[in-house]
Structures are given as structure tokens and as C-alpha cells.
Amino acid sequence: MSKEVNSESVSLCPLNTAAAPEQELLCIFGTGDLGRSLGQRLLQCGYRVVYGSRRPHSCGPLPPGTQAVSHGAATQSANLIFVCIHRQNYDFLQTLAPQLNGKVLVDVSNNLKKNLYPEANAEYLQRLIPGAHVVKGFNTLSAWALQNGPSDSNRQVYLCGNMAEAKQAVTETATKLGFTVVDRGSLSAARELEDFPLQLFPEWRLPLRLAVGLTAAFFFYLIIRDIVYAYVVQGKDVSFRIMVSLANKVFPIVSLIMLSLCYLPGVIAAFLQLYRGTKYKRFPDWLDRWMLCRKQLGLLALAFASLHAMYTLIIPIRYYVRHRISEITISQIRENITYKFDTTMAWRTDSYYSVGILGFGLYILLGISSLPSVSNVLSWREFSFIQSKLGYLTLFFCTFHTYLYGWSMFLKPSYYKWYTPPAYMLSLVVPSVVLVLKLLLLLPCVDRTLTRIRQGWEKTDPENDSKKSLLT
Amino acid sequence: MSKEVNSESVSLCPLNTAAAPEQELLCIFGTGDLGRSLGQRLLQCGYRVVYGSRRPHSCGPLPPGTQAVSHGAATQSANLIFVCIHRQNYDFLQTLAPQLNGKVLVDVSNNLKKNLYPEANAEYLQRLIPGAHVVKGFNTLSAWALQNGPSDSNRQVYLCGNMAEAKQAVTETATKLGFTVVDRGSLSAARELEDFPLQLFPEWRLPLRLAVGLTAAFFFYLIIRDIVYAYVVQGKDVSFRIMVSLANKVFPIVSLIMLSLCYLPGVIAAFLQLYRGTKYKRFPDWLDRWMLCRKQLGLLALAFASLHAMYTLIIPIRYYVRHRISEITISQIRENITYKFDTTMAWRTDSYYSVGILGFGLYILLGISSLPSVSNVLSWREFSFIQSKLGYLTLFFCTFHTYLYGWSMFLKPSYYKWYTPPAYMLSLVVPSVVLVLKLLLLLPCVDRTLTRIRQGWEKTDPENDSKKSLLT
Amino acid sequence: MSKEVNSESVSLCPLNTAAAPEQELLCIFGTGDLGRSLGQRLLQCGYRVVYGSRRPHSCGPLPPGTQAVSHGAATQSANLIFVCIHRQNYDFLQTLAPQLNGKVLVDVSNNLKKNLYPEANAEYLQRLIPGAHVVKGFNTLSAWALQNGPSDSNRQVYLCGNMAEAKQAVTETATKLGFTVVDRGSLSAARELEDFPLQLFPEWRLPLRLAVGLTAAFFFYLIIRDIVYAYVVQGKDVSFRIMVSLANKVFPIVSLIMLSLCYLPGVIAAFLQLYRGTKYKRFPDWLDRWMLCRKQLGLLALAFASLHAMYTLIIPIRYYVRHRISEITISQIRENITYKFDTTMAWRTDSYYSVGILGFGLYILLGISSLPSVSNVLSWREFSFIQSKLGYLTLFFCTFHTYLYGWSMFLKPSYYKWYTPPAYMLSLVVPSVVLVLKLLLLLPCVDRTLTRIRQGWEKTDPENDSKKSLLT
Ligand SMILES: Cc1cc2nc3c(=O)[nH]c(=O)nc-3n(C[C@H](O)[C@H](O)[C@H](O)COP(=O)(O)OP(=O)(O)OC[C@H]3O[C@@H](n4cnc5c(N)ncnc54)[C@H](O)[C@@H]3O)c2cc1C
Ligand SMILES: Cc1cc2nc3c(=O)[nH]c(=O)nc-3n(C[C@H](O)[C@H](O)[C@H](O)COP(=O)(O)OP(=O)(O)OC[C@H]3O[C@@H](n4cnc5c(N)ncnc54)[C@H](O)[C@@H]3O)c2cc1C
Ligand SMILES: Cc1cc2nc3c(=O)[nH]c(=O)nc-3n(C[C@H](O)[C@H](O)[C@H](O)COP(=O)(O)OP(=O)(O)OC[C@H]3O[C@@H](n4cnc5c(N)ncnc54)[C@H](O)[C@@H]3O)c2cc1C
Q1: Are A314 and C339 a contacting pair at CB < 8 A?
Q2: Ligand 1 pocket, A264 CB below 6 A?
Q3: C279 CB near ligand 3 (under 6 Å)
Q4: Looking at ligand 3, which residue's alpha carbon is closest to its atom 19?
Q5: What is the Å distance from ligand 2's center to C374 Cα?
Q6: Which residues of B touch A161 (CB under 8 A)?
Q7: Which terminus of chain A, N or C, has less C-beta within 10 A?
Q8: Which GO biological process annotations does it have (chains A, B, C) (predicted)?
Q9: Quick check: CB of B152 below 6 Å from ligand 1?
């Protein structure tokens, strides 16, 4: 079969396939795609490879320089064995248990779905062959990466296993192949490793759904209030406003609500702790889950805020805006009116912009500090200073920005088209509540109690005490 | 006591509290908040826990499934002991020295202030019980993280200790609890680890103070020159300009000054080395400290530059600006004037914007390259190419941008209100000096000498030589 | 000689130079700059240091507290020896082979150019003294960092070597000096480590050249079409447009082309795999190289897109634009015309901006996900979801943005000045081709075959089969 192999491919390993004396022999069980890909890569990095196969004579094309023999034969020559077989076929390995005694077995398998089996593949393998040292690893890589070496998404190889020496041996091989190894502890972490490649942003789902839901709802609300209203009541077609004007109302609203939803659970948690008088009772499930997706809520809020910033900045180059402005100027001249400069208006709008920009600056700071490499170099005190203290400041600035935008609008009935309040008012409800509750928590007496509770103090009411003496 | 415990909380560890045979028993000294929090977490991750207490029968509620016994009894059953006691109470541990021989003691303690004690808590513990293997660790985590497992700010656990095996054992436990371990070497690093949780941006203090000081000073200067002057001399109230116009003068000024302060120490250092003829004499203290906060100076300068960018981009949507523009247009018509298009003006302003944008782009590149994860993948040559070469280019662009802004303003007496120069001129002093000095350093003859000095060459003037022969 | 030494410099190591009993003695071969710098740092961190020199009595000033003796004498007292000698002088070390037996030799050397010698310095050293344990390391640091401890660019020390214990010993020392150690495997990685400090963005060269080339070409094209044409045909000097207007045409064009060049190789690769019916044949060299610089292509494209965004946002504050707008308004009044509001125009321009902003948002998301610390926490599935799926979406948005910009311009002969098409049309060619090809690949039948091929399936045409049976 005329088959070229990727032998000169991009590889940092020396190609001393022939000369070097200390070439190690590795064994691969399974001649499928994974086995072949891995074998090629090992060859490129100067290893010798032998395949173990159930049908050594009819197992299809293998990388040149390798051969397939029976599992038993393959086992004898190597100490490190990559198991590139599907889990369904593991059971036959049991028959090889004696030969596999003391060998290092690398389980690279993945499943098609989560929770398909009661135990992790690697743990199952270990149970089948208790005498072998099973190491879970490489499964977070794609077959493509196994064949071609690391690229951006997969420079890291996660390993776990119960025996340090076995992991060390696999680590050596992985580093030779160009990967960076992260040790994840004992084999009980295998389940986690096997779930890793299957996940697609699990912790982003809820926040994303919320964002999409809010966006859709407010778009709908604004289309009714702005577009349909103008069409029905004033007979004007302003549908073109959907693209920028409406979007630039929806984005800041969603951003502000999501930002406040990011700080609401913390406040609720604090009140719950105050009420219960202890921090050792666990939070209700919904609160727990909510608190765990605050980072994602916050980052999505930042994304919406950035869109708001961009949409705001292009306002003056829009055709519609330019047309309006020249229209106003022209009508001023034709009708010989002069609008007097209104200092209050100047103060208000300038403050409005200024507060918005400062809030956005802090927003971005929060975003930067949540980059893994940045949060890793921060101490816990520093991180929570930024996320909690500056986070509340951000929320305050953004809420204030929105109040300044509204100004006295809420007093004018003309803004309540069809008896509905302007959308910006709706967006102010949650942030205002959060800020007021937070203020309450900052009252010295409340703050003192809360601090004590968080340091482990517990309110022991007499009832409890008597119960305790009865029970213990 | 009716007490629920966070037993189903968010944990990736299997909850095989009952079945698994190989459950390890760990011991915790101390039943305070830290001890209880840590104990809960260990239980959740499948360990068995026993508490050592001075008053085992009256030590308050413990996580269910654990019990408190005397320190001696607790010690016997476990090899790994977490010491969750305050340092003040360490001394009594001395009495346990024989039982603790060969055990691994994890010191998780922190102090309330830096330099409270002459030696690190962990070193003190090691001195008290020389036969034990003390490992410092987990102290960079909050009690909250110890109880609930890692979150963003504290995925990493720092360890240090003198014995590799002891560290290995603690590492295993930490990875099981979900943390990533960073080994910081021998126990002499304990002090550093104990100081870590206490710090709140120590290296940012000086640059921040400088930034605040400069901002306040220039705000004051501009309020006098712009607002007060207009009020006193022209009788106009332009106080609204504070919010945006003034801010947008102060921010670029502070940014430019801080950027130049970031490159000034390098130039001073170079001249000092040239003058001394050696690189082996240490710099004066102030220069050392200055050089160590250049990163922070630079990043703050970038923050101010970004604010400047935002404030500039909102200019055309400001009420004041729109009003002015329409006023000008209207007056042109009413008075029937036509302003001719001025090509020089167009060239100048466009260049001004263009140079500013390119400078800002480079600025951001500097910022990106100082993210830890980015600077880690750069070689030293690459990093200093960006920070030094492109950094000077940034400084040049930003300075040039300011000169273009000023243009011929410095020639017109009307700009020197109350005999004070416009603020932008003040901001040009330091950058111009830095650039000129840098140009001098780039002269071939100077550059050659400097390079030789930095490669270790030393000027040996005759006087020195004679001294040397006398002394050695 | 009156020589102060940097002894109080910025160091986190305790300065227990005198008291501590367990001070380790290290040996340094070579008293040049590197040796002296390293020695100083070691002293500061509490080690004792002895120098090995060929002329121990005339080797110039050494850090106080150290002394130079003969190589042989120096060797006896220490187990860890830093070899700070140039490779050219290694050969004399052979004479010391017996004394160096079992010692750890740290090779810190670098070469002036790549591929100067057939084998890595460290491998050469190992060959000269087979009985020693050579560890390559510290060479990625500058002498400056060796003397002063880690700073931002060089917190990480890369090590490689064949013996784990030797590496462990060097690791201990490096962590004591304040560095973080990354183990790069066996000594065969030494070459890579020695090349690392020499490189200056090697993988950025090609994309950078491409970007510069495209920018220059389009600038030239547009100067002809816009500036020269206006001058020759209309007799107007609009040269000032170079600074902003032209730049803001060139940048988006280059960005779009580079973005599409980032996705073109993937499409070509897919068609090649379809045509060949296998994924095991390696790609032609040019394609391989192209695919390896896609990240850089993409990031440069993002940089150009950001410049485009900034240049667009400053449009309304430009003198030229303000002048034009007021001119138009004035002429409307003087000539008493009223431009009617054109809803189609409003829809089109607003869509144009909106699509552009969304595309830019995705662009930035791609950029963020390619930060090392972010891509490290993503699973391979997540990373390729962002880079591939959202990447194509970005390309689609940006292309659509450009089509909306062009609108019906391509129908109007007046836009074909001197029979050349507007530049934006040229920029649409590659992206359109890429998108069409990608659409073809998404057809169910094609997609199915491709997926099978990528899972390892191979088309076995009869010819091949017969060949195979003949050959094997
Ligand atoms: C742009 C952006 C980025 C963000 N990135 C992140 C991120 O990377 N990571 C992240 O986690 N969040 C992130 N967030 C969300 C948010 O900023 C943080 O969750 C923030 O810490 C919430 O502050 P808090 O004071 O409400 O909550 P917390 O500080 O978590 O406190 C709230 C509650 O938690 C409990 N608690 C916390 N600490 C203790 C303790 N020591 N002892 C006892 N109980 C305690 C208490 O019940 C308390 O009431 C981000 C937000 C934004 C807008
Ligand atoms: C946005 C932004 C981000 C920044 N981020 C960072 C950052 O992450 N990290 C950081 O350090 N700085 C950062 N800076 C600050 C600044 O860019 C750097 O400090 C830059 O390296 C200074 O360049 P330099 O040429 O003046 O100094 P250097 O390259 O440090 O040289 C100046 C002096 O240092 C000494 N020196 C340096 N190298 C040697 C050597 N090999 N041998 C002998 N002596 C030597 C010499 O005395 C020399 O005169 C940042 C700046 C900005 C604006
Ligand atoms: C701002 C920005 C940042 C970027 N950052 C990065 C970055 O950090 N890292 C990066 O790599 N790219 C980056 N890129 C470039 C680009 O987004 C990616 O390369 C992207 O993955 C290309 O997608 P694709 O679908 O064309 O290619 P791929 O997903 O690589 O697929 C293309 C071809 O590769 C081969 N292939 C890939 N996977 C397999 C497989 N599993 N089995 C068999 N064959 C396979 C096939 O031949 C396939 O036809 C960036 C781009 C931009 C605009």
C-alpha cells in the first residue's frame, strides 16, 4: 500500500530513529485510529513501538517500522503499555492479568456520554488487572493532537494514578512528546478526567440562557413600545431603529441586570447567615448554584457592557443621527429660534458620561482580574478586594449612570407610552434593591455580627442548647 | 444540636464515605473555625478525620462522623496532622514531641500582622518539634475556601518544607481536595508564605499614590486656569466642564508623565553605570525601588490612557459639543461667513489622531505582554524587545501626539492665562528629557561602552588599581 | 579595590550568611560575568560559593566571601557545579572527568547563533564527562536575572537532564533563588532550550511580513486611486486624507484578508483529505507551515481590526468631517434644499454598523481565548468550538459587514476610477471563496465522509488494495 507517513512533520523531538542506543520500546494495545495516531507520534519522538492486537495479521496499515503481534507477546517486551481499546472490549484483558502484573497501563479512553458507566474506565481497568499500575491520561487530547503533537488548546496532559513511579514514567514520555503534565492525584480523579473532554461550557449554560432570555424579552418590550407604538399612534415607520437604537437600549439593560444578579446572591447569603446565626448550615440548592455561576454572569454582563460602549460610540456617525442634527440646525435657522445653552443639562449629561466611563473602566478591571493567570498571582485578600469591593463600586457607578440617564423622565407621563414604564426603569429595580440591602449589611452593628458569624461564631439560642444537652 | 452540615456541597470528590476500604485517617489539632472548616472538607473528599483537643469533651460542635480525643491519642492514629492552632498556643505541643516524631505536621497558621515574630510560625514549630516533618501550607487560602474547595482566587496551594516525602504526602491530600500545588522549596520560604495572605497590593501603593497625587494636582491647576479664570475674567460659568473636558485634559497628562517615569529610571541607571564604569556597584535605594515599580507605573499609565481614549470618543455626543457646533454653523449663516477649508489644519489634526491611536495600540500591546501567562511564554529577548524597544516607541508616539496637539499654541500669549503655561506643556517636560537622554545613550560610542559594562567589563582607573594592590 | 556588592539587593531569601549551620557549598566553574553574577545571587540566598578557575590567583574581583581555587580543588568540596564557561573551552574539562564522576553539572551556556554546533552544548558536555549528571538549565535567563533574581520576563527556569535526582537538586537551588522550575524532560531537549533565548518571535515573522506587505500594497493602491486621481482629474489636493481616511480603508481590508487567510488552510486541508481519502498522508510543506501560523495571522488580523475600530470612532471629531458636515448643512439652507430621510439608507448603515460591532465582539472573544491561561482551562472541544465555529461566524460577520458597506457601489461605474475596482472589492475575494468552500464542506454528504476520514477511516480503492497485497 502506497502510504506516506507524517514522518517529517512538525516535531521538536530529534529523529534519532536509528543511531541512539537507549531507544525505549513502548507497547500499544489496539490498532484503531487512536493507536495508529499515537504510534506515529511516538516513532517521531524516537521511541520504538510494538502493537498488541487480537488479529495481528489483519489489522490494517500500521506506521512503518512497527509491527503487530499478539497481546501476550507485545506485553513481554515493554513496561509501558498504552491501552487504545474501547471500554466495551476491556474484559478480555483480564486473561492477560498475569503478564500485565507490575506493568504500567495508560488508559487513554473516553466515553461518548457522561455517566454511561458506574465507574470510570480507568478504575474499571484497574479492577480487572489489580496487579498493574493503571495511569489515566492523554484522554483530554484529540487524536489529532496525539498524532501531531501539542498545539494551543492542548499543551497540557492531565494524569492520575495511584502509583507515583508509574505516573513518573508516563510523565517522562509525555514531556518527550512535547506536552506539559499536570498531575491530578490518585485514580479516583479518573472520572473527572474522562468527563473533561465531553464538556462544552457547562457552567456557562445558565448565565447564557438568562442573557438570551433577558435580551429577547427586552427586545420584544422595546419593539412594542418604540416601533409599534410609533407606527400605530404616530403613523411613522421607525423600524430601522431596531439595528442600533434598540440594541443600544437592550444591551445596557441586560448588562446592568446581570451585574446586579451577580451581587444579589452574596447579599442573600449574608442575610441567611444572619438569620440562621451560623455559617455551618448549608445554603439552599438554588442559592449554591447561583453563587457558582457568578463569574460567568459577571463576564457576560461585561460583554454586554462592551457592546453598549461600542454602540454608543458610533452614534455620531450614524446616518440617522447626522440627518436629525442637521435637520434641527436647519429648522433653528428657518424658524429663527435660538436654543439657549442649558448649564444643568450640560452638567447632567457630562456627569452621566463620566460616571458611565468610570464604571466601565472598573468593569474591565474586574474582567482582567478574572483571567486565570491574573487571579493566580493575587492573594485571596487582593482578589476579593477587587471582586467584592470594586465590584460593588462598579455596580454603584453603573446604577448611578442609569439614574442620571433617566433623570426626571420618570415624572413625565409622556414617557409612559401605553401605560408601560420606559425599559431603563425596569432595569433599575434589581440593582437598587441589591445596593440598599448591601448598605444595610454595612451598618456597623450588622457588619459586626456578620463578621463574627463568618469567623465561626454561632448563635446558640437556649432552645438549641437544651436540645444539645439532651442529644449529646 | 440540630445542625446540618454542608455535606452535599459542590465537590468533585466522590462521597464514598462508607464503602471504600482505603480511607485514610487524618488528624486535626484544634477545633476552632479553621479546624472545623478543614475537617468538613476532608470528610467530603472521603477522608476520616479525628480531632486532637485539649478539652475533647467540651470543644463545641464538630462535623458529624468525627470525634475529638486528646492530642496524644489523636496523634497515634494518623501520620498527617494539620495544626490549626494559633501560634501563641504552639508551646504546649513541645510536650507531645516524642509522639510527633516522624509525623508530618502541616502548619496552616497565619499572623494578624507582618513581622510580629522573629521567625516564621512554621520554623518555630519545627524548632519546637525537631523530629517532626513540618510542612507550611494552605495558609494562603481563606477558611471559606478550605471548607468549600477551590474557587477562582485560590486554586493554588503553596507548600514549603524541608522533606520531600512529607511534601509529597501533603500534595496528595491537597490535590484530592481539588487544589493545585506549587512547591516553594524548603521551610525557609515559610515567612514569605505567611506574609502572602496579608498583603494588599504592596507594590501598587507608590504608583497609585503618585497617580492620585498627579491627578489631584493637575485637576486643581486646571480648575484655576479654566474654570476660575473664565468666571473671574470673562464672568462665565463653565463649571460643567469639570466632568468631561477637564478630566480629558488631566488623564492624558497623568498618563504621559507616568509613562515617562516608567522609562526614566532605566536611563538614570544607564548613566550611573557609565559614570561608575561598572555594573557591580549597587544602585542607590531610591533608584532600586523606582525600578521595581515600573510595571505598576506602566499599567496605571495605560489605565489613564484608556480613560483618555474613552473620554475623547464620547466628545461628539456631548450636549455641550453639539450645541457649540450648531451654534457655529448658525452664526456662519446669519453672519454670512464661510470658513475656508484649511489643509494644514486637516493634516495636523489627522496626524495628531493617527499618532495617538498608534501609540495607544502599542500601549495596549505592552499591557497584554505583561499578563503573567503571556510573559511566561516569551523568551527574555522577546519580552525585553516589547517592553524596552516598543516601550520607547510608545513613549515617542505619545509625546509626539502631545506636541502635535500643542502645535503652535506655545507661541500665543493668550494661552498663558494668568502667566501660567497650559497644562499639556507641563506634561511634556519629563518625556522630552527621557527621550533626549535615551537618544544620547543610543550614540554608537556611548552604546558600545554601556554594552561592554553590562557584559561585566569594568573601568579600572589607576587609582583603584593601586588601592587594590595595597588591599589584597 | 573599593567594590561594593549588591548585597542588600531585592531578595526574598534570608541573609543568614553567617549563623545557619546547614549552608550548602556550591561550586562555579568560570569567573566571567555569568559566574560572578550567579555567585552573587547564590551568596545572597545563603549558599557558600567556591570558584574553580584556571588561574585562581589572577581572575579579577570576585564577590566577597568567595574564593577561587583550582578546578580540581573546587570540585572536591561541592556536589553541584555550575559550568559558566564558553563551549569552546569545554574540552579541558575532560581532564577532570574522574573528579567529576557522580557530580551534578549545570550547563548554563548559550550560543551566539542557532545550529552553530552539531550537538547541544549540554549533550557535548555529557559526552565529555559521561560519569557526571549533566543538567541543562538557567540559560533562558539573562545574566541580569541571574544576578538580581526573577522579574516578570523570567520567573520560569527550564531544566532538562537524564537523571531525576540531579534535576531535583538543581530544582531545589532554583526555587531557593526564587525561580519557578519547569522540567522539560531528558537531556535531548537541551538543543531546544539553547535555542530558546536566541529566538525573536520566529513564528510571527511570516504573518508580520504578510501584514506589512498587504498594508503597503493597499496603501499604494489607494494613494493612486484616491489622492493622485483627485489631484490629476479633479485638481484637488486631498493628501491630508492619508493619515486617517486612507489608513481606515487599509486596516479593515488587511484585517479581513488576514482573517480569511486564517481559515483558508483548514478548508484546503479538508478538500485534500477528501480527495486523498485518508488523513494519514502528510500535507504539503507549504500547507503545514501555513496552518502553523494561523494563530499569529489571526491575532494580527485582530490588531488591524482594532485599529479600524479606533479610526472609525474618531471620525466625527475630525476637523475635515466637521467642516464637511457644516458645509453641507449651510449649503442646504442657502440653496433651500431639504434632503428627505431615506429609511433604506438608515436600515443599511445601521445594519452595517451593527454587524461590524458584533463581528468585532466575536473577534475579541477569539483573541481572549487564545491567551495561554485561558486556552489552558478550556477543553479541546471548547477551544475548537470557539476557534472554529465562532471563528467562521466572525469571518461571516466581517465579510457581511463589508458587503453592506459596498452595497450597490459595485454597480456604479463612477466608482471604478481609472478602471480599477474600489479596494474593498478586492478584499472580498478571499473571504467569499473561503465561505463558499466552507459551505460546501457543510453539505451533509461531504461532512459525513470528512468526519469518517478524520476518525481514521481510509478510502481503499481497488488499485491500492492490489498494490498492498503485492507489497506486504
Ligand atoms: C467582569 C466580572 C468578572 C468577574 N469574575 C469573577 C471571577 O473570576 N470569579 C468569581 O468568583 N467571581 C467573579 N465575578 C463575580 C463577582 O464579582 C464575585 O463573585 C464577587 O466576589 C462577589 O462579591 P460578594 O461580596 O457579593 O460575594 P462573596 O465575597 O462571595 O461573599 C458573599 C457570600 O459568600 C460567603 N462567603 C464568602 N466569603 C466568606 C468567608 N470568608 N467566610 C464565610 N462566608 C463567606 C458568605 O456567605 C457571603 O455572604 C465577576 C464579576 C464581574 C462583573
Ligand atoms: C503598559 C505597560 C506595561 C508594562 N509592563 C511591565 C511588566 O510587565 N514588567 C516590567 O518589568 N515592566 C513593565 N513595564 C515597564 C517598562 O516597560 C519596562 O520596565 C521596560 O523594560 C523598561 O525598559 P528600559 O529599557 O528602560 O529598562 P531595562 O531594560 O530594565 O534597562 C534599564 C536598566 O536596567 C539595567 N539592566 C537591564 N538589563 C540589564 C542587563 N542585561 N545587564 C545589565 N544591566 C541591565 C541597566 O541598569 C539598565 O540601564 C510596563 C510598561 C507599560 C507602559
Ligand atoms: C483573534 C484570533 C485568535 C486566534 N488564536 C488562535 C490560537 O490561539 N490558536 C490557534 O490554533 N489558532 C488561533 N486562531 C486561528 C484559527 O481560529 C484557528 O486555527 C481555527 O482553529 C481554525 O479553524 P479551522 O476549522 O479552519 O481549522 P481546524 O479545526 O484546525 O481544522 C482544519 C484542518 O485541520 C485538520 N484537523 C483539525 N482537527 C482534526 C482532527 N481532529 N482530526 C483530523 N484532522 C483534523 C484537518 O485537516 C482540518 O481540515 C486565531 C484566530 C483569530 C482570528
Answers
A1: no
A2: no
A3: yes
A4: C294
A5: 26
A6: none
A7: C
A8: copper ion import; iron ion transport
A9: yes
Q: Name the grid cell of B296.
A: 505598576
- Does domain B23-198 match CATH 3.40.50.720? yes
* d(C-alpha A174, C-alpha A168), whole Å: 10
Q: What are phi and psi of B182, to 5 degrees?
A: -120, 120
Q: Is A4 on the interface with C (CB under 8 A)?
A: yes
- The percentage of residues in chain C with a pLDDT greater than 90, rounded to a whole number, is 47
CA C82 to CA C93: how far, in whole Å? 13
- List Cβ neighbours of C180 (8 Å cut-off, separation of 6 or more): B182, C150, C155, C156, C157
Any A CB within 8 A of B346 CB: no
Q: Rounded distance, CA B190 to CA B87, Å?
A: 14
pLDDT at A77 over 90: no
Among A residues 128-167, those touching chain C with beta carbons less than 8 Å apart: 140-145, 152-156
Ligand 3 site, residue C299, Cβ cutoff 6 A: yes
Domain range summary for chain C, segments of one domain joined by +: 23-198, 202-459
Find the Cα–Cα–Cα–Cα dihedral A386, A391, A394, A398, rounded to 10°.
Answer: 160
Angle between helices B285-292 and B294-313 (to 10 degrees): 50
pLDDT tens digits for B412-438? 888 888 888 999 999 999 999 999 999
pLDDT score for B393: 97
**What is the Cα–Cα distance from B175 to B173, expressed in whole angstroms?**
6
The ligand that comes nearest to the alpha carbon of residue B380 is: 2
Distances (CA, A) of B376 to B379, B383, C153: 8, 9, 7
**In Å, how far is B433's CA from the nearest CA of chain C?**
26
Written as nine digits, the cell of A314 is 458610533
**B194 touches B111 (CB < 8 A):** yes
Cα–Cα distance measured from residue B428 to residue B260, given in angstroms and rounded to the nearest whole number: 9
Distance CA C442, CA C435 (A): 10
The pLDDT of residue C212 is: 97
d(CA C280, CA A41): 12
Mean pLDDT of the region A329-347 = 88
pLDDT band for position A416 (cuts 50, 70, 90): confident
